[in-house]
Amino acid sequence: MNDHRISKNGSMGGLTRRQFGTAAASVALSAGALAAFGRAPAFAQGAALKVGVLLPRSGLLAQAGQACQRGAEIAPAILGELGYKVEILSADTESNVDVARSRAEKLINDGANVIVGAFDSGQTAAAAQVCEQRGVPLVMNIAAADRLTEQGYKTVFRNFPTSTMLVSNGLALMKDLFAVSGVTPKTAVFLHANDTFGMANKQAMDALFPKLDMPFGIVDSISYDPKAQDLAVEVAKAKATGAELAIVTTRANDAIMLVREMVKQRWEPKGIVSPGSPGLYDEQFYKVLGKYADYAITNLPWYDPKAELTKRVEAAFKKQYPNDRFEGYAFNVAFTLEAILVAADAFKRAGTAEPATLLEALRQTNLKDKMMVGPAITFDEKGQNTQLVSACLQNRNLRPTVVLPKGSAEMDPVFPAPGWGKRT
After folding, report:
1. I want to staple 277 with a disulfide (CB 3.0 to 4.6 A). Which of 51, 157, 249, 301 is the partner?
2. What pLDDT digit, counting tens, does each position of 231-273 carry?
């Protein structure tokens, strides 16, 4: 207390009243400036945006989660070259919704300014609830269930197609495939996982199919548990329908089980086509199935091999993972890196990681320099990028290869696919 006693000569701890008043005013002004500009002065000095990356790196979806994680691992160096500064905080959901929720909380408590993730729609929904409650932005890397951007959340942003977009674009490309090949199946069977993503695609298929004037009919929809040990019963049921086309919604593990069982039961439809799900183009699909992986088709967004960012990412990937093929990981890597880029771009424009300001910057996103084919990344009032387009990928020589649209095609499509016994 003695240090703050005013002396008889008007001094206060060695300061006159005038000097003290001036100092106090200066402090007040500084505090007011900080309040007005948020955390901008600190970030202007070069602090990084802390990005919490939430992915299923173990459990059922580990292969996809680990592929996405590679995009997060190479992101800081690549984005640093482009003038962005990010710090990655990683967390494993263990392919579990409840764990995803708790890990999202922990990432925020550990200082994450934004969450990126979480590949699976169910786990992403859990993270979205946490982010909405905490007022922290969530930028989805991969997750298609429509409801994720239909619940009125103000903190979610998705640079990935909804299930409705995937199915709509995927079915349209099937028409193009049939027109180019001159072969049109008359019937199809739809096989899909019974998880959040698979059921969302089923709902989209049910809603869209009657409106799109498709040249074939769907004779049956067959769901399965992606955690099953085999899909013998489901494949036998699908084969018994006599359908000429297999439409599938899969992930890597069940896609492998599905094709193995088709080979075993000698079911040879004219083709296997996915309207936008992973699995058929994942590296593990090629490694396990070999020649039986070829000719499967997936209609989904894909990277532009001519884009400058693609070249940077491919070079960085090959340097860090010299024993792995970029193409087998590219989809997961690209969408994860782009999600981090979206957050970093908003942060750079905002000049601060203060949530309200960062959220507003995310809403104003107009990102042209990116990896994926299509126009600039923008978000509607729900936080959805509605401008994403799809390409037709066919596995050729154990590589995902663009076959449509013709202007982007690396090879012509092969349809119908050769029978299992005719593969070399």
Report:
1. 249
2. 999 999 999 999 999 999 998 899 999 999 999 999 999 999 9
Report the 10 Å Cβ neighbour count for 322.
7
CA dist 116 and 124 (Å) reads: 9
pLDDT, tens digit (0-9, with 9 covering 90-100), for 187-216: 999 999 999 889 988 999 999 999 999 999
Strand order in the sheet with 297-300: 217-224, 187-193, 245-249, 271-274, 297-300, 391-395, 400-404
| Cβ contact 208:239 at 8 Å | no
Q: Which two tokens stand for residue 116?
A: 């990126």
With contact defined as beta carbons under 8 Å apart, do 342 and 349 qualify? no
CA distance 105 to 216: 47
pLDDT of residue 424: 80
Determine the Cα–Cα distance for residues 326 and 323; give it in Å rounded to an integer: 10
State how far the Cα of 292 lies from the Cα of 256, in Å rounded to an integer.
10
pLDDT per residue as tens digits for the range 150-187: 999 999 999 999 999 999 999 999 999 999 999 999 99
3-state secondary structure of 383: coil
Question: What is the share, in percent, of the chain residues with pLDDT greater than 90?
Answer: 80
Neighbouring-strand partners of residue 6: 12
Q: Is 113:358 a contact under the CB 8 Å cutoff?
A: yes
Q: Which string of DSSP letters, residue by residue, matches 318-355?
A: HHH-TTS-HHHHHHHHHHHHHHHHHHHHHHHHHTS--H
CA-based R_g, the chain, Å: 26
Global confidence as pTM: 0.79
